[in-house]
Design goal:
With about 475 residues, the chain is mostly beta strands. It is built from no helices and 27 strands.
Length: about 475
């Protein structure tokens, strides 16, 4: 693959470090860059741009394969009728079946696989009328598979997604979620809206399905009186995804696991407008409500959820101002692999302090990555620093088995920031694209500690080596 490097003649984020900046205006609309200090002077044409664009996502057939020999002692309820399955409350671990659904009385500690519903370890059992009530806890997949192979291929049609809102989808519903003061969900004409407040910040997220893609707008707003003191805005277009995966168990151990995201196709705009916004931070993860896709693999149910994460810093004391605007384009594939081989003996510390002969790796095939920016700028009174940063991770994909996560997040992160430092005076700007994945394979039977891997990272900053350090 040939790459075309498109660096501007002068670094696109070049900033002057001349006379001090004049105090900014009091409102966003009036916060023009100060003429005495040169703003970011030119446009980022792109970090690396591959000739051409990734092909449009073709229609992908959902398919899977499953072939396994079950472990001795494991109880697998194959052929269980839906009528015999009464219910499973994952949080409490209570599994209810009709009497006669179990071929024998399970022992304490025995593993039970209810195809399509649950994989659990039995802790206690009692009868209630015509039902059998089991107290359980989640069990790992290696306890039910002795030898086996599985694979799956699943399109993720974001344009046809159902966004699950707690309590329904219409009209707006207020409730408390995590550290947020109040949240509201709503849906109208296929457009999903979500609103939350956290302190003096308001988050507004809109998801609009279009053929073959999902358009997302995320805003972070802060007002002082009737005046808008801060507006961080992200506008993303995410094309439909394809998830693929497969694994192998031998002798009751997970020996191979491959997970792939194919045809990642994202166009994104990030903008920062702030004046006298004070101090604070942006930190919001949106796994719920999330776009949810069940994936059936034999008796297993995997669940893919697609959400987003917002991050940012707000350091605009006094009458500080900052602005930035960046366009991103990303096309590519990513892959996460686990391999176990006693001959290689790649040792990794386990969760219990032991060691296992396994290794986890991640790689990406970046086809297109393009970045274009308008002038960045920041200003404040002498001696008062500025740091305005905003980023969004989208799509942010998670994978779970019967509700227990093994990939808590797999995301593309896009970040932009504008800073002003003193001693010596220096304006700087930075742009970054990050592909990162977290993993915790304990539910699959791998005793690796949970961790994360950086798949790829590309970025620009100006000055190229950052601001000079203050001399002692």
């Amino acid at each position: 693959m040939r790459w075309r490097y498109a660096w501007p003649a002068a670094l696109a984020l070049l900033l002057g470090c001349g006379s001090p900046a004049a105090p900014p205006a009091s409102g966003l609309a009036d916060a023009a860059p100060d003429a005495s200090v040169a703003p970011i002077a030119s446009t980022v044409a792109g970090i690396e741009t591959h000739e051409g664009r990734a092909p449009p996502l073709e229609k992908v057939e959902a398919k899977s394969s499953w072939e396994a020999t079950y472990a001795p002692g494991a109880m697998v309820l194959e052929g269980l009728s839906e009528k015999a399955f009464v219910g499973y409350a994952r949080e409490s671990g209570v599994l209810t079946l009709m009497q006669g659904a179990l071929p024998s009385t399970p022992k304490t500690g025995q593993v039970l696989l209810v195809p399509g519903h649950a994989l659990v370890e039995v802790m206690a059992m009692k009868t209630r009328g015509r039902d059998v009530v089991l107290q359980t806890r989640p069990a790992s997949l290696d306890r039910v598979i002795q030898d086996g192979d599985f694979s799956f291929q699943s399109p993720v049609p974001l344009d046809a997604a159902l966004v699950t809102f707690d309590g329904g989808s219409s009209p707006f519903i207020a409730q408390s979620v995590g550290d947020l003061d109040k949240t509201q969900f709503g849906s109208k004409d296929g457009i999903k809206k979500w609103k939350a407040t956290a302190g003096d910040l308001t988050y507004l997220i809109t998801a609009t399905p279009k053929p073959g893609k999902l358009e997302i707008e995320a805003k972070v707003i802060k007002k002082k009186g009737k005046r808008a003191a801060l507006a961080y805005v992200a506008k993303a277009t995410v094309n439909n995804l394809v998830l693929k995966g497969g694994g192998t168990y031998r002798g009751g151990k997970l020996s191979r696991l491959e997970l792939k995201q194919e045809d990642l196709d994202v166009d994104l705009e990030l903008s920062i407008e702030a004046a006298g916004a004070g101090m604070g931070k942006v930190d919001l993860t949106l796994p719920e409500p999330a776009i949810t896709f069940p994936i059936t693999v034999g008796p297993l149910i995997l669940t893919a959820k697609v959400g987003l994460k917002l991050i940012g810093s707000i350091k605009l004391p006094g009458k500080a101002s900052a602005r930035a605007f960046v366009k991103f384009k990303y096309r590519g594939d990513t892959e996460l692999d686990l391999k176990r081989d006693a001959e290689i003996g790649a040792e990794v510390k386990g969760q219990a302090g032991g060691k296992v002969d396994a290794k986890v790796s991640a790689k990406g095939d970046t086809k297109v990555i393009d970045i274009k920016a308008k002038p960045f700028d920041s200003a404040n009174f002498i001696g008062m620093p500025v740091d305005a940063q905003f980023g969004i991770a989208v799509p942010r994909v998670s994978l779970s088995l019967f509700g227990t996560g093994f990939v808590p997040y797999w995301h593309l992160g896009f970040i932009a920031g504008s800073k002003l430092q003193w001693g010596p005076l220096c304006k700087s700007g930075y742009i970054k694209v990050v592909n990162e994945v977290g993993y915790d394979f304990s539910i699959l039977g791998a005793s690796l500690r949970k961790d994360k891997l950086l798949v790829s990272e590309k970025g620009l900053q100006s000055p190229e080596k950052g601001c000079p350090k203050k001399k002692k």
